[in-house]
Amino acid sequence: MMSKKVRSRIIIMTFLLGLVIAVVYSVLKSLEENVVYFLSPTEIIIKENISFNKKIRVGGLVKENSITNDQTSVNFIVTDLNNEIIVSYSGSLPNLFSEGKGVVVEGKLRDKKYFIANKILAKHDENYMPPEVSKILKKTKE
Amino acid sequence: MLKNFFPNKILSFSNKLFGFLIALMVLFVFVGLIYALFLSPPDFTQGDSVRIMYVHVPASFIALGCFGFMGIASVCALIFKIKILPLMAKSLAPVGSVFALLSIVTGSLWGKPTWGTWWAWDARLTSMLILLIFYIVYISVWKFVDNYENANKVSSIIAIIGLLNLPVIKYSVDWWNTLHQTSSITLTSAPTIHYTMLIPLVIMLIGTILYTLIVFLMRYKTEIMKFKLDKKNKEN
Question: Within a domain: residue A129?
Answer without folding.
Answer: no
